[in-house]
Design brief:
Chain lengths: ~400, ~400
């Protein structure tokens, strides 16, 4: 019968948790002195010394003298993430794809984004494009770079195994994207695929408008409207990982047909097509029409402003429902909805005043996303870092760069 | 400098967790043999013996011979909750108030429910009524009963401190119910106040249709429509405890005025008034009108069935939104909505088929609550037991009974 050294197992777990706490701190809060790490983690100076040493041996952090701060005495060295450690973050949205190499600590080392027409392209073409862009991005990395993971944000409903079950605005159905992309990219690393709303919520709570908050609803407003929900500091996944499709709450049940097959989903009233329709643009006008619209709004065009007030009313209707259901500390409006905030904030607040109990409304702020268009890539990178942040010693990165 | 015996502290925590595990098992799953407890908890026979002994000394369980089961050998004794341990569960709904004494293990020892007219009564009258009913309930308990806690389910938005912030269908605003009731009842025990939807969700996941499920949305459908949401096995509270007001998601934004001050909330389409209006009854007809309606439905009245199909459509619209947002394993329809299920299930399923991605819909069942009208009292009792179940040795019950 095997025996287990449970004491050893326990101290191993504690060591792993402490390594993780130190790495997470420098990854999210930036370079820190050893004293800063003692304060941030509650660990002793001796323990921090050992952990920083081990993270250095793992190649994850470097210790460098800080620049003199004007105070007397020798400046304390700063523990910094070693930016030779990177992940690949990708996005597949309705009219763009992108690949970026993002370093431990969050610095974007290389980024390629391609705008694409809104034709529904087969998955093979997207996989080939992402693979080619990956080659370009990796070629820009210095030699000795270490690749720890790959994650993709997709505007669609994604199952836990990385299959895109349905992406109505991209035209995919039941596509095993994680598997296809891992095979095509061929770096020996698994690929994580996640919904763009879930990834955006991670980005905004780690590095954006909602940093440090535990109860947050992120609304990913683009052509489609998705969402990512953080409850008590954890992502709301649902029973199969499909939760968060707040764009498909019916708010106008006999309204316009939605690409999901239903009618009058919130997306049909606040998505890009609704915005273009209300402001008198062709609904398929895409980026050009949006640029024209924002220029007119900035110039104070009264017709556009009237249309935006109506649009704001519909944004408020859905946000009111979100607040009543989730009582979040913050609702973060991302993508197109975030970009609209300067023009819709007042009318949105008026709508909330009539639709949310005052006592509940007082607890919640509604803000534009801080990361704007970069939220999917930033969030995908954080998703890829999660495994390393949970167990820093266990990551076995691939060597990349030239 | 103080020193801490951390080994001692840890084994104390482990002992408390093990006591809690055994008590929780007999409370929820019913009487069990020691072998059954070994199997259920993974603890050794020796540990179970010690824990059962300690729970016996605390007066929380008794061990009694089981009835002979026809198999050879002496029957194993059964560990049962000692039903001298009780909590007081109360409900304050729009047209009823109730007080029950519910024993460890779930048996209702005494219950008084008063139907009330729907006049909006001041909180003083409700507190006085509940206090008088408590006296009556306690008088029915055997002497030597031990009262461990008091909890109240209220059809309103409740802050964590037990203040009813707003109860639109009862007419209360900013009422410190927990404080008033504790003072009036005078048993030296704190009073927990919670929203009826949250309490119903607890009841159905502990003792009802959703027992054992981790991702559940409970819809409390009465005069108003509330809800309680369980995410990953934990209640979704929100930042101030106000989450779950799914009756106030706007589904018909220019529709009827809602008592919350908004328009076209889901409650205005699926609450009691909407049901009575659609079936041609006076909206203030109350229980008598509902009884007439259910009799007509049972008799196959075609006009009523046509109206119920329209009602089912609106139930489906909201449930579709709930599934798209939460991807729960189960949506439990409670109260009036549960009572309607035999008549609306088919039309509801049709509506879901057009409004929820097939892949998501396949994961979720939509069912009537198993506890029906008792959910608020059962859930309030579970809420009151939580503290005892978390730390059985720490409870200091009041002596009650005659």
């Amino acid at each position: 019968m095997p025996t287990f050294d449970t004491t050893g197992a326990r101290s191993e777990t504690v060591r792993q948790a402490n390594l993780a706490a130190v790495l997470r701190h420098v990854h999210l809060a930036g370079p820190a002195t050893r004293s800063g790490l003692v304060a941030a983690t509650g660990l002793t100076r001796g323990a921090i010394g050992a952990l920083v040493g081990e993270l250095g041996e793992l190649g994850l952090v470097v210790e460098q003298p800080s620049t003199a701060d004007g105070r007397p005495g020798r400046p304390s060295p700063l523990v910094r993430p070693d930016t030779a450690n990177v992940v690949l973050a990708m996005e597949v949205l309705v009219d763009s794809i992108a690949v970026a190499a993002i370093a431990l600590g969050g610095e974007v080392i290389a980024k390629h984004r391609h705008e694409r027409p809104r034709t529904q392209l087969p998955v093979e073409i997207t996989v080939a494009d992402l693979t080619a862009m990956t080659t370009d991005v990796l070629a820009e990395l210095p030699s000795g770079s270490r690749l720890h993971g790959i994650a993709v944000a997709v505007a669609g409903v994604v199952r836990r195994d990385g299959t895109v079950m349905v992406a109505p605005n991209i035209g995919w159905h039941d596509e095993p994207l994680a598997e296809r992309l891992a095979a095509a990219v061929g770096l020996g690393l698994p690929v994580i695929v996640a919904n763009d709303g879930d990834v955006g919520a991670l980005a905004e709570t780690r590095r954006g408008a909602a940093a440090g908050l535990d109860d947050v609803v992120y609304v990913a407003g683009e052509v489609g409207v998705g969402g990512g929900i953080i409850v008590g500091g954890r992502p709301l996944a649902g029973t199969a990982g499909f939760a968060g499709e707040i764009g498909h709450f019916p708010v106008s049940p006999d309204g316009l047909a939605c690409k999901c097959g239903s009618r009058g989903c919130w997306e049909t009233e606040v998505g890009e097509e609704a915005l273009l329709r209300r402001t008198g643009h062709p609904v398929t006008g895409g980026r050009a029409a949006l640029d024209e619209l924002f220029a007119a709004a900035a110039a104070g065009d009264p017709g556009v402003h009237a249309a935006l007030r109506e649009h704001a009313r519909w944004i408020g209707i859905g946000v009111a429902g979100i607040i009543n259901v989730f009582d979040p500390a913050m609702v973060v409006l991302g993508g197109l909805l975030g970009r609209l905030m300067p023009y819709v904030a007042d009318a949105l607040a008026d709508e909330l005043a009539t639709r949310v109990f005052e006592e509940v409304r007082a607890q919640t702020s509604v803000v534009a996303a801080a990361l704007a268009g970069d939220a999917p890539l930033v969030g995908a990178a954080e998703l890829a870092w999660n495994r390393v942040l949970a167990d820093p010693a266990a990551s076995t990165p691939a060597r990349v760069g030239t």
